[in-house]
Amino acid sequence: MSGIHQFVPMLHVGDAVGRHTVAVQSVLLARGYESEIYVELEDEETAARTRPAASYAAGAPGDDLLVYQFATASDLAGLLIGRPERLVVNYHNVTPAHLFAPWDNGLARHQDRARAELGGLARRAALGVAVSELNRADLVALGFAATAVVPPVVDLADPGASSPRPARRRGARWLSVGRLAPNKAVEDTIAALLAYRARFDPEAELEVVGKPALPAYSAALRAYAAELGLAGAVHFAGRVDDAALAAAYDGADVLVVSSEHEGFCLPVVEAMAHGVPVVAFDEGALGEVLGDAGVLLNAKDPLTVAEAVHRVQHDEGWRAGLVAAGRRRLPALRLAEAGPMLADLLVAAQGAAPWPGSVAVRAQGAPGR
Amino acid sequence: MTGSGGTGASEGELPRPGATPPPPPGFLAELAEAFRRHRPQGSLRWNFSDAFTRLEQHVRRPPAAGGEGPAAGDRPGRGPATVGRAVSGRLGRWVDGRAAAAARSAVDEALAEGRGATGATDAAVEAFRFLAARVEGLEDAGSRRLSPVEGMAWLVPSPALGGWAGPVARWVAGAHRSGEVVHGECGAGELAVALVASGLSVRGAEPRGAVAWEAAERGVDVHVGPVEGLLASTAPGSLGGLVLSGVVDRLDLAGLVALLETATGRLADGAPLVVVSTAPGAVGTGWDAVARDLVPGRPLHPETWALLLSRAGYVEVGPLEGPDEGPGAATYALKGRRPG
Fold it and tell me: For a tag on chain B, would you pick the N or C end, based on fewer CB atoms within 10 A?
């Protein structure tokens, strides 16, 4: 049997793309396919489960399907464009360059390069699979002939069927989860905490969980919190393991998302699973993922966010309704089916089966297969 | 705001913390600006890296008519805090000069070797990249030297003005002719409120965000950040008056002289200046261990301020009568006025 192999610049165990890639491999192996993960650069933590991308070229059968897990620029794009095998791009989003530019111009240019590479891949790929409709729009705009949406394949640990907790009236625990990058706009959450403490709850605190992506941005967040007088109220936890992340959700009264750009936003889903209400700025895919299971704000000035959190904290009926809506929202996102759905698509893209009925594949222009 | 679930109370039913009005939108913009000043680099289209690329492109193909310079409004994104880094700024200018000389030298050398324009540009770009990295290192070092500890203003807070608000407000209002009066650091706005009550237009500068929030709730127009940044963005000769407190206790001598130089340049002819300082004798008993360890400078004696103001051309220099006088006083105030 021919193989379905994945390519990713680096395989990180701690990020969403890395976890997704490993989960997809598990599904494919369980179905009896050969499935390797090829990387441009090895990560020490995952080196044992990856192979160098350059090692694929020799002796590879032409009927393999290659899947590029795309979230950043890398030399893999050129390599894959030049290969004869069928190609599927699994697109996880590229953060717009202008959000990085004031912090790290090299990285900003990298984002521009990523988008250019995605455009190049569009002409070669039989299928582009996006993790959200927002991302699919990117693929369509760049000219992918066939596109589909499948949410990320993640293993959401079941936190148990805990009943909604009443909110603490004082000392509210805000939570922010995600890579510390400028598109997350954590500074807006910090400013909102200042407003919340000034107007509603002087003991409120914020835990910021996430791996620093840019040293300058992380340093600025710490300095800003200190300048605002929140050095003792904003806790930067950095990257944490699954158990610590679960504990952070369990200890939180609200997840606050101020992001300027999100391709999916897994923390929102995790918060729903843990029964934590979400207050989020309606940008990127946030509305698509959150639906009506949280508070979506069309403005995120500190007072607006503080008022929203206060309402979540104060109105226990409303809070319970949000938590219940989150629990209802989870099955609608079809996360549990994502692995089989994506595998079905990949098998079909390989030419071994028709497009599966469980996923809508939209074609534009010339067919991609 | 949209949301779902439950039988939520309407917005009007939410409890409010007393009758305190929220800060005005202008203050929220100031709060956001206080974060943006931490950005280390320029916009996407105006930075070293982009300049290098444009340089390389110009050599490989003729430039389009009209050039490819930065668009209006797309100038370097360094905020006042970065621009105000006096030390790194001077170093930057020095290095810029060296960079230009090095680049010229590299071009000359390459042309002399007959490698042509492309080779010359490659060499110049390499020289610029090297020097750009050096500039970045110097800027980082300068920034750390000027602000080695985050949130210094919180660790070493400004003294409460207490009974000084009334006397200072009365003297400034009496000496004022026209133009906005600045108070830095304004704390929760006690003096600013008194100055406004005297009919003056007042802007405060306060580096402690939560304290600035309190001032804003009292209706004070507050710049969230050091007073040096506010003064740097003020037009020369435009200020109607200036009160300095808090910041004058923390800066070292070079910083104080630089602050006075900037302030003097911003004050209008005849405009009053007041310095409210902790008395040097009060440092040993009034400052805690953290303050004594972290403050880079020491408060000056009133005689020293009088000398500095006189040498800077101020007239009517002298102590301001207030509630806290005598040899054992914890604070003192010194006044002066620009000539004219």
Answer: C
Q: Is the CB of B25 inside 8 Å of chain A's CB atoms?
A: yes
Residue after which a domain boundary falls, among B125, B146, B167: B146
Token pair in block for residue A38: 């090829």
The packing angle between helices A215-227 and A186-199, to 10°, is: 10
Looking at the structure, do residues B169 and B85 belong to the same domain, yes or no?
Answer: no
Supply the ipTM of this predicted assembly. 0.88
Query: What is the phi/psi pair of residue A236, to 5°?
Result: -95, 110
Residue contact A105–B47, C-beta within 8 A: yes
In a domain, B7, yes or no: no
Residues B134 and B174 both lie in one domain: no
Contact (CB<8Å) B40/A108: no
Distance CA B43, CA B76 (A): 6
Chain A hits for B35, CB-CB cut-off 8 Å, are 187, 191, 220, 224
Distance CA B266, CA A229 (A): 30
**Pairwise CB contact (< 8 Å): B7 & A321:** yes
Q: What is the distance in angstroms between the Cα of B74 and the nearest Cα belonging to chain A?
A: 12
Q: What is the mean pLDDT of residues A130-155?
A: 94
Same domain, B315 and B296: yes
Distance CA A45, CA A52 (A): 15
Contact B6 A322 (CB under 8 A): yes
**Same domain (yes/no): B161, B234:** yes
A200 pLDDT tier (thresholds 50, 70, 90): very high
Tens-place pLDDT, residues A319-348: 999 999 999 999 999 998 999 999 999 999
Nearest-CA distance A187 → chain B (Å)? 7
Single pTM value for the model:
0.83
Note if the bond before A34 is cis, omega within 30 degrees.
no
